Amino acid sequence: MKSFLVSILLILLAKVAFANSEYRCGVSLIFDSDGTGSVANYILSLQVKNTTGRNITGVSVIYKDKEGEVVGNAALKCSVNSSDIKPGSYGECVRTLQRVDGEYINSFGIKKWTEIVNTQLEMLNSIQFCDVLGFSY
């Protein structure tokens, strides 16, 4: 009985240790267009290895800069093409953190829109690490 309880404790500690781990993550600037014109999407992405026994659909993270200072937090979606991350597999989890659309061009002009896009990119490029807090199944 004692060895059974020790085994359960070790399993729980292993899962807790994984759920509070720091990983490299980053933001990509992806351009698109919609009915209002050009769109700049700032997408946070993280590669995840599923060591749990269930499919992962999402991951909750705190994202930090290179000094380890907290920049923000987010819930990332891990279902790509309606496919979850299966146990033992790797997958990408993503979330659009910021979207600057063509309405800014209409309101402020192309020069100001470009300035906004570059300012946001500089700030969001500071994101280097993600602390994984937990998973959605």
Task: Give a verbal description of the structure.
The chain is of the alpha+beta class and 137 residues long. The chain has one domain (21-136). 29% of the residues lie in helices and 43% in strands. It contains three helices and seven strands. It has helices spanning 2-19, 102-108, 110-124; strands at 22-24, 26-34, 37-49, 58-64, 70-77, 90-100, 129-136. Strands 1-7-4-5 form a four-stranded antiparallel beta sheet, with no helix packed on it. It has a three-stranded antiparallel beta sheet with strand order 2-3-6, covered by helices on one side. A hairpin with a 5-residue loop joins strand 4 (58-64) and strand 5. Helix 2 packs across helix 3 (110-124). It is flat, with a radius of gyration of 19 Å. It starts with a helix and ends with a strand. Residues 4-18 have low confidence and may be disordered.
Helix content: 25-40%
Strand line-up across the major sheet: 1-7-4-5
As a percent range, the share of strand residues is: 35-45%
For the CA atoms, what is the radius of gyration? 19 Å
Task: Work out the helix count.
Answer: 3
Counted beta strands: 7
Outline type: flat
Number of domain units: 1
Mean pLDDT, to the nearest integer, reads: 84
Query: Residue ranges: pLDDT <50 for 5 or more in a row?
Result: 4-18
Report the major sheet: 4 strands, antiparallel
Structural class: alpha+beta
In angstroms, what separates the terminal alpha carbons? 31 Å
